[in-house]
Automatic annotation (TrEMBL):
GO terms for molecular function: nitronate monooxygenase activity. PANTHER family: 2-NITROPROPANE DIOXYGENASE, 2-NITROPROPANE DIOXYGENASE-LIKE PROTEIN. It comes from the Eukaryota. This is Inosine monophosphate dehydrogenase. Gene3D superfamilies: Aldolase class I. Pfam families: NMO (PF03060). Keywords: Flavoprotein, FMN, Oxidoreductase.
């Protein structure tokens, strides 16, 4: 029995799972593999050095799959401010119709995508932000709990409470994000009223993920205790893998008098983090990881992963339903 939800209908996908934007990881090979496997693959715009390079990446993805895929644009502080509008325009010109937005002040971008008839999924870490994104006309909210990799916001609310609040307060469909790595997480998300789940870290550790094998093996051997928050004191909190560099960053942030971004800039630079994925040294720089890292113990293909999740979720939903004894038989 397929898991048909508002999300699968809206996006034209088979399995209600999205591979959310991931800097340096959301490249054509992975996005296409997820879409081919029945989920929604997403290219991360800022992983491309220019809008023109994004155009090429979109064309490459289309050569790899005829299924729908999306593009992520994340608006957060950056060392070199990107041409967000240029990336957005190119993706629309190339016929992309599904966008994932995230970060600060997404209003103009959302307005632009909606004016072009696109579907917008917006990532939020609070119900307050979710409601204002709803007013901006987004189609789906991606509710990002404290468990997530990357930027969880500053309010530290776990997915369980955020999603239950979303069920009570939101009018548009929403998906869970943060802490999901298996069919249990997907079934739990659906039980919490979500129309599907977003996964990042889990997809990093698949055959088609474009990162060094050593990092995939490191993910497999790590536990839920192996991530840490950096940038807490700079109000740009990010959950990353706990390694020599991230521990050093936290130490600098916590020294008397605090730290300015410039004090950690060289340690945290995305260009340095990118080399982790290329050279396979997990201690070389900063790389994002969510606490669901503790649930990951293999490196499947995207197809194996999604089929397994679908099967597990269906079994759990079936078992849960069988717990209910009709009142007439009590
Ligand atoms: P970068 O090299 O510009 O910056 C490295 C890190 O420092 C990022 O986390 C960034 O948010 C943070 N940062 C930069 N300037 C800052 C400042 N003045 N104050 C506080 N923090 C600051 O980043 P990058 O690796 O080239 O990535 C580009 C952008 O994409 C960043 O904003 C990053 O956070 C964001 N990002 C996107 C995704 C995604 O899913 N699309 C995932 C991770 C990061």
């Amino acid at each position: 029995m397929p898991l048909n939800t508002q999300l699968t209908k809206l996006l034209g996908i088979r399995i209600p799972v999205i591979q959310g934007g991931m800097q340096w990881v959301g490249l054509p090979a992975l996005a296409a593999a997820v879409s081919e496997a029945g989920g929604l693959g997403i290219l991360t715009a800022l992983s491309q050095p220019s809008p023109q390079a994004l155009r090429e990446a979109i064309r490459k993805t289309r050569r790899l799959t005829s299924k729908p895929f999306g593009v992520n644009i994340t608006l957060l502080p950056t060392i070199n401010p990107p041409d967000y509008e240029g990336y957005a325009r190119v993706a629309v010109e190339e016929g992309v119709r599904i966008f994932e937005t995230a970060g600060n002040n997404p209003g103009p971008l959302i307005k632009y995508f909606k004016s072009q008839g696109c579907i917008v999924l917006h990532k939020c870490t609070t119900i307050r932000h979710a409601k204002s994104a709803e007013r901006l006309g987004v189609d789906v909210l991606s509710i990002d709990g404290f468990e997530c990799a990357g930027h969880p916001g500053e309010e530290d609310i776990g997915g369980l409470v955020l999603l239950a609040r979303a069920a009570k307060e939101l009018k548009v469909p929403y998906i869970s994000s943060g802490g999901i790595a298996d069919g249990r997480g997907l079934a739990a998300s659906l039980a919490l009223g979500a129309s599907g789940a977003n996964m990042g870290t889990r997809f990093m550790c698949t055959v088609e993920s474009p990162i060094h094998e050593n990092i995939k093996k490191k993910i497999v051997s790590s536990t839920e205790r192996d991530t840490v928050h950096i940038f807490r004191t700079l109000h740009n909190t990010a959950r990353v893998f706990k390694n020599k560099v991230s521990v050093e960053v936290v130490k600098i942030e916590n020294r008397p008098g605090g730290a300015k971004f410039e004090d950690v800039r060289d340690l945290v630079s995305g260009q340095r983090g990118k080399l982790v994925y290329e050279n396979g040294d997990p201690d070389y720089g900063i790389w994002s990881a969510g606490i669901c890292i503790g649930l990951i113990d293999d490196i499947p293909t995207c197809k194996e992963l999604l089929e397994r999740m679908e099967r597990e979720a269906e079994e759990i939903i079936g078992k849960t339903a069988s717990l209910i004894t009709p009142r007439s038989r009590l």
